[in-house]
Amino acid sequence: MAAKPLNVLFLCTHNSARSILAEALLNHMGDGRLRAFSAGSSPRDDQQPNPLALQVLQEAGVATEGLRSKSWNEFARPEAPAMDLVITVCDNAAGEACPYWPGAPATAHWRYPDPSEFPGSKEARLWAFNDTLNGIRRRLELFIAARPETLDRLSLQAKAREMANVF
Q1: The Phosphotyrosine protein phosphatase I domain covers which part of the protein (predicted)?
Q2: Is 165 helix (H, G, I), strand (E, B) or coil?
């Protein structure tokens, strides 16, 4: 019988770029041992994943089906999947008072610049999205190599926070 996957929630303000990239990439790389979700502290009512985020994921061979912008309140409900680790990927979300997460998951903050705020041409903005995707990928590769699904809560939190200082 396979072990229960480690549930990881990536948080950002609008849940349209960085957290979406991290969710899709970890689900792609996690080999069933890790299951990723994403949410935003204050997504707009009509918020959708940034089209450039979806484009760079698709170009990298990462599935985008089912990705959607959602509020972090979805994961604070009793029927929500229990999270083992919650990672903020933007400074705004990291500074906000988070909801109560059932199960008291480990937490960490992994800072990435917002690629959707990069100025210039579409090509320049695509470069920013690819750069962010590659930064997330490098950190996730190291994190996955540490076999986080085998760690207790405190060790998981320490390892996730250690990854914040990589790159």
Answers
A1: 6-146
A2: coil
